[in-house]
Design brief:
Radius of gyration: 17 Å
CATH topology of the largest domain: Phosphorylase Kinase, domain 1
Number of domains: 2
CATH architecture of the largest domain: 2-Layer Sandwich
Number of strands: 10
Oligomer: single chain
Order of helices and strands: HEEEHEEEHHEEEEH
Distance between the termini: 39 Å
Largest sheet: 5 strands, antiparallel
Amino acid sequence: MNDLGRNGIVNTAKMTLDKTPPHSRAAGVSASFVRMNSGMPLGVKSFTHEDERDRSYAIQEYLSKHGLAPKVFAKFQCEDHGQTRYCLVTECVDYVGSQLIRYDGSEQDAQYYKMASDLDKRIQQVGLYPEDLHNANWGLLNGKPVAIDVAYFEVNPLHFDKTGDTPPDCAIVRELHF
């Protein structure tokens, strides 16, 4: 993406954050999320800590190359309602979450559990361990399951030693210890 496109996306993300009070955003443990009004299916994740944002960006970028996470487009720092926040812009997905899983043993629930299990296996096949892949941390992109919260994924160094692939470029790499 050229600088003009990146700057436009970042400016739109900042305006979206300015217009959206923190209490009205979707929030997880390490980040909040809000859809951008950009005419494109993009959203902005806002983190309290720079290292968590950088790690999430690197892992999500790596997984997106394998079709296992939405694309990431930019990362930036800004003031957000009086607090310094570390942000990334990401492609939006169809959120699965608790509202679609009924926990009633239905065929729909079985289908979602199978999708999550298959996603977990595919992520492990590319050298990461999805430690926190519950129903609120994945969604559907073009009908296929993808991880949307990768903050607690771990890198399996044995995979990268064996395959020679390059692991995600993380400032903080949590490795599995066997």
